[in-house]
Request: fold
Amino acid sequence: MLTKRIVPCLDIKNGRTVKGVNFVDLRDAGDPVELAAIYAKTGADELVFLDISATEERRKTLANLVRDVAAKVNIPFTVGGGISSVEDVDILLQNGADKVSVNSSAVKRPELINELSSKFGSQCITVAIDAKQIDGEWIVHLVGGKVPTELNLFDWAKEVETRGAGEILFTSMDNDGTKDGFANQALARLSESLNIPIIASGGAGNMQHFIDTFKEGKSDAALAASVFHFKEIGIPELKAKLKEEGIPVRV
Reply:
């Protein structure tokens, strides 16, 4: 049985790790290089590094910061933010990233997923999807959740898989930063309708939320930020609890 993954997320703005609620009200959470090193040593299975202002400011992810973080970790490391071409990905992989995450650029030009998958392999390509419920329907949003689209979450996720994505990072904007738990109903629907791994994001507040997303949400991995950054949950303790619950994890 495949082990479930615990994935700290480093949201980066102006070279610092930040965290907000519902994608706004950001506060400083520390130095990303230092945090990455701590997480690698304390049992994180992977790291995700998202330069959250890269797309909004129309600039590229900070390759030198990627290089500094990669030098400190020995676990898979995904980088996203402002990626819109094969060349962008090439630079990030050369600087130490193991995988890349694309979001807005893939919605604007879906062929990008095909191009990246063909060039680098699907195992290297994560498509991040930010969505919130509007009139009962999950609607995909862009540019850090600021711009709604006409895309339905489940339709877009299916297209993403068809085009060659290796996994999907789904963030519920309704749950993000609330610490009320993950959007498990939507996650379960994604997991049941797709054949690629689903990373749950948005809403982690306690250990039970991780248990619930693995059992009820059928998630393959759970991503969180503030509960790890501000030491509300320790990864070794979390994994011990998950193991007690019969959830397979790498210890």
The chain has ten helices and twelve strands. The CA atoms of residues 122 and 166 lie 4 Å apart. The radius of gyration is 16 Å.
